[in-house]
Design goal:
heterodimer; A: 284 residues; MetI-like fold; two-stranded antiparallel sheet; 11 helices; 75% helix; globular; B: Rossmann fold; six-stranded mixed β-sheet; four-stranded antiparallel β-sheet
Amino acid sequence: MKGQQIYQQVAFLGLRLSTLIIISVLGLIIWFLGKRGVSALSWEFLTQAPRNGMTEGGIFPALIGTLCLTLGAIIFALPLGVFAAIYLTEYAKQGRLVRIIRLGINNLAGVPSVVFGLFGLAMFVEYLRFGSSILSGSLTLGILILPTIIRASEEALLAIPQTFREASLALGASRWHTIYKAVLPAAIPGILTGAILGIGRAAGETAPIIFTAACFYTPRLPHSIFDQVMALPFHLYVLATEGTHFEKTLPLQYGTALVLLGLVLGINLIAVVIRTRLRRKMRW
Amino acid sequence: MANNTKIVVENLNFYYGNDKALKDVSMLIQENKITALIGPSGCGKSTFLRVLNRMNDLIHGTRLEGKVLIDRHDIYSNTTDVVELRKRVGMVFQKSNPFPKSIFDNVAYGSRAHGIRDKTRLTNIVEESLKKAALWDEVKDKLKQPAMDLSGGQQQRLCIARALAINPEIILMDEPASALDPISTAKIEELIRILKEKYTIVIVTHNMQQAARVSDYTGFFLLGELIEFSDTNKIFTSPQDRRTEEYITGRFG
């Protein structure tokens, strides 16, 4: 009995410790970036273009570029992913074909992001002649986050009680009406979770946009989806590796990293608030 | 049984994969009467009920032999439109299952699904259906509120209202009061008795007193077979089959 209790204590300690370590890592990153980057933050930093060979000034074009790319990726990937998930869970006959498709989607999630970048380069930039542009970058990022969105949407749809579908069909509603009016609205909070994860990933990825959208430096803001843009992760990469004044730009680097982190966390926060509101309305 | 026959079931066999859930069931269901189906859990009575609006179509790997006619039309023929069938054959489930929408939107759901958009018409349908389900007085001032805020008994009457709103001819009820308290149950039973004037009702119940109280005809299922089917009075006072007698006197089940 005594031995069992000690055993339990040790197990709980292990669980607590694991959680603590995970939380500390996140806390450490935020603290580290905050301490070093906060001095670079200013209104000017957020609203002005880089100056003097990117050793001074701000990150405004990169901020706008990342917003455009992320927005584009979500516009492309969210409907596509949700429709694919609807097809897989609601329409497709569950069998070997669906299993193969699911396997494919899971594998897509495991493909290294640089491979998506190269694919985007070959497909969108070269073959479809979109050039290095917001469009190419958004599509590439969109494909990258598709598996996340599909999986989250599938899980959200599968979590909807079968009784909703039965109730709707028993009222003489068609299958599409059932999905569109009874199942999908109840699944939206879960689907939003997938979208949040996707947005976070799309905003932070570097490799897929190096070849497809990002440029080294431009003070010009994009005028169309065929323009190249600066982007926060790539800007950070450039400052940290290719700048001639590496030491001098350190505060800028930390500032950029902090803004990128803040952007992702901010988007997540907004989505979490929306999701919580919807859940409250949609509970069953 | 001199009334008009609404539903004819002939030599029905039903399979879940290789499991035979219904064995050679034949039954005549009368118009504007209440037919109760009783029997122990897993005897096939719910399966039988779900055959009548083809709800079992949703379950993968089910198979059916035999004939099911509603108004002399084979509902399992290739020309049957399942959506049209379900408009005529409404269903109320064991566990009340309102959508996470407002009371109004719940009752209007079926009509909207059938393409009715006119606001006045929808309002009329909702009011009428809620009145028929004896729920109107309790909810008329809060039609915009979530249906999930209603009590269990109210939710079930809402589901009945929702089924009535599509103006069916037949209403199938799968243990509609099994999750409710005695007062709510009494309200539902009273409602069922009133509804039979306009609708043909088939009700599955675990509760034999309920079957005896509300129904005109009763069928007793056991292990997928329809053991006995007759006037409710006759079933409960002088059952012909020994197994029926044993079941209703509580010797097993």
